[in-house]
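dude i think i finally got it to work??
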Amino acid sequence: MKTFTALLLTAALAAPLAATAAGAHDHHGSAETHQLQLNAGKKWGTDAPLRQAMTSIHGSVTQILPSAHAGKATPADYDAFGNAINQQIAYMVENCKLPAAADEQLHIIVADLAAGAEAAQGKHGEGKRAAGVVQVAKASNAYGKYFSHSGWKAVKLPH
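look at this
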């Protein structure tokens, strides 16, 4: 998982630069170089720590999404949400043990989760907090699409 930690830190440090270079309206960023893929047409395997962390993230995002969408989430709500997501990312980094190819795919999702948490915490401006929640929801949905997690349900997005 040392490789995962190094790549996560690299992604976290590079994300603000990539976002700035890509422009505010480019939602694809570096998707051409880091695009999620299935494992020969099948979902990637998971382990218990990954499933536990993603289940917690799913719960956090489904809890705040309605109030964020309605414009009723407070800065404290968003900060707590961002902290919860970051705690689960740290747990994944510490405990998740996936084969290298699956790990590479997971990095893409983790980068989106981290960027969403950062935005939700107001690090890109107060007006981007709700968009950060949506980014975490979309990353959670991508996880469910590309990783095998029994009973996983997509987060219902309001739009």
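Residues 80 and 152 are 24 Å apart (CA to CA).
im so relieved honestly
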